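Q: What structure does this chain adopt?
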Amino acid sequence: MVTLDDVLQDLEAESASLDRLVSALDDKDWSRPTPAQGWTVAHQIAHLHWTDTVATLAATDPAAFIERMSAIEDPFTMVDRAAAEHIAPPEELLRRWRDGRDALAKALTSKPKDEKLPWFGTAMSPLSSATGRMMETWAHGQDVAETFPERPDAQEHRRPTDRLRHVANLGFRTIGHSFLSHGRGAPAGSFRVELSTVDGALWTFGPENAPNRVAGPVLDFCLLVTQRRNPADLGLLATGDEAREWMTLAQAFAGPPGQKREPRQ
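A:
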């Protein structure tokens, strides 16, 4: 069974890997556009800093978190606006991000494991909150790394690791949420997900006799549920009507539907 400490250790490792990559960039590279439309490298790190900060607030002062979120006028543009507002010079932004990561880890470890923390449209345990931060850190790190195809350290950061187990598990657990966030009813049938790793292992989720099945590389599955790739660009096989529909709706993050990527080919 995965524990909060397990996830926080992997989150720390994932964050450190991205930290090494962006720390080696010069100032002009921080303004380089990433695959996320309208977002530079600075936007990506500012977003991670902002979400770490609000996750810490949700853990330490739930009432203040709810009050702050209730004051937001347009939730559909909130993420873009927050990323832009939290941009700072690289050295300052790095310091804030690092401090925020440490504060979040301390806040989550101080909470009872069964306590529900408010979040965007839902409530989560400290373990789920940490898993969400792991998913976001990996996803935005992919955008940063893909921005620099000429850099060996960027390509190394993109290499799949066992830390993807958290992203894959969250992607499976949010299948029903993906339908609901797009205004669809919850799927009637169960799902089975079978994912192959680079070292030949097989990660499975869901009952073996499920009528809906998704199979393929774990990296492709994680890219899909974080909306970093269009389904047409991935080697995933969906069996069952609801599984095929889910491929167009997949969303491991909370909140309204994200801006999905166009096919590359």
